[in-house]
Design a protein that fits this description.
Blueprint lengths: L27 H26 L4 H36 L4 H13 L2
């Protein structure tokens, strides 16, 4: 695993296809927590790849994929909570109620 202090420099460039173009500065604690979660998920996915390459039994793979799904859902919950406490709250305080519609749209996408 790479050095956590260097993670700030490893931020990938934003994609053009699906991103709103907005950005958010995250404090070190939030950034490190989210990155650690993603790194663990990445490791779990690599583990499933190895299981498949090694002809692991179907249900064993399915259990691991379920764990990945749970980890991604947990990541989303943490990120959504942070978003609501910072971005949404700040926008509402500044009088930008459009952020509520954006949040509703985001929640609808997450609840598919």
């Amino acid at each position: 695993m790479s050095d956590i202090s260097n993670m700030q420099e490893e931020k990938p460039e934003m994609c053009e296809c699906c991103c709103s173009g907005k950005t958010k500065e995250r404090d070190d604690k939030e950034f490190k927590d989210l990155m650690n979660r993603l790194k663990r998920i990445e490791g779990q996915v690599r583990g499933v790849e190895r299981m498949l390459e090694n002809d692991a039994y179907c249900t064993d793979i399915l259990v691991q994929v379920s764990a990945i799904t749970s980890a991604l859902n947990s990541f989303n919950k943490v990120l959504l909570g942070n978003h609501m406490r910072t971005c949404v709250a700040d926008n509402i305080r500044e009088g930008n109620d459009e952020v509520i519609d954006e949040l509703v749209t985001t929640l609808q996408k997450l609840m598919k």
